Request: fold
Amino acid sequence: MKVRIEATADRQFRTNSYLVEDEDTRDAVVIDANLEPQLMIELAHKRNANVKAILLTHTDVDHVGGIGALLDAFGSIPVAVHETERHVVAEGRPLRREFGASTHPIENVVNLVEGETFRAGSLAFDVLHTPGHSPGGVTLKIGDNLFTGDALFAGSIGRSDFANSNGQALLDGINSKLLSQPDELTVYSGHGPATTIGQERRTNPFLN
Ligand SMILES: [Zn+2]
Reply:
């Protein structure tokens, strides 16, 4: 399978949404729903992508705020999220007591389960639970690509100063689930540019 990955970023938070598409079948998913969903809708149309699901690395408002518009555009496709943050999208309850609610309740919510494969059309993602920034943070792996959300960035790691964050869990997850991956794997983060596992292993100041 040949996977094509393209990102869109909103201007307010520079949060990345990714279109991940199987170039043979045109089946695709969107990973995270930033605050400018129109950019993703246009990209998916331009690519002739058949978007089968929305996958969430976690449910901070800047990663889920565009869900409603994406569902309007792509139909009532499943929204996949780790069970510990399911209430945020299924019930429209806030993830953080520091912030308000992110979305209206969404009906078609399915679970991302650590160690299990999530399938959407011809695409299959391994689910790695990487909590700490938030309780239900996950990394999604397909081929040589990792979508790490706000756990790991190029040169940085996610914030863990929120009430439901856990800095030790964040580091433990990065070490056990991400730095255990081969150096050549590409890391697509929730914010900022792509990097590789090897680059972060060698140079990320938060991991040494
Ligand atoms: Zn974020």
Observations:
- The chain has a mean pLDDT of 96.
